[in-house]
Task: structure prediction
Amino acid sequence: FDPPLQPREVAVLAPDIDPYLPYLGAVFGDRGGDDAIPYALADASPLANEPLAEVFLRLLALPVSRFGLHEILDLLASPALAEANGLDAPALERLHAWLSEAGARWGLDAQHRTRFDAPADAAYTWAFALDRLLLGYASGSDALVQANDGQLVAPLPDLEGGALDALDTLLRLLRVLARHAELLGEAMPPAQWRERLLELLDALLPRPPASAAGQRALDRLRTLVDAFA
Result:
């Protein structure tokens, strides 16, 4: 070409540009670098490659979630939720070890399991495991305890006093997730969807993000929920 083409005269098109965003730096170089190719980006999703967006999509799927142990703990370990609720890596590791030993596998309780055409059996649900842990802490013994429904519970006295903060946080977040698994499964007008989605974000993110980028992502997500309604 005479004169040579300029970068602004070249367009790279894709049906969906979002999957390519992580690789732009490797292809075009760091902006401002001596060997960088200047480029401008159009039509990317507002929250493309934002971890908070992935968390939000997982929250929308709560009504069909089996509440598997790894599924829920992975969700709580996401940077946005872990930071907002004071759950660091050692706390999450302790929770995983306690709950695994106590028998948490999937399902909130016996009634929740029936939604997935499973028998109404509480064994190896979250309720089953948490009962064992809390009774073990309260009694300090592994002697069998008879529950109000006549079932025998085998306490697991493994909790230490200083570690109860992590379990208390888990219980609070689990109640929020369980409640919204019910609420988000209902038919609602857009205004009510907005109310419940923003309520869910406020409940799971009680502290503002520490970084400016995190705060911008949260503000953008709330704006998108408003626009949806």
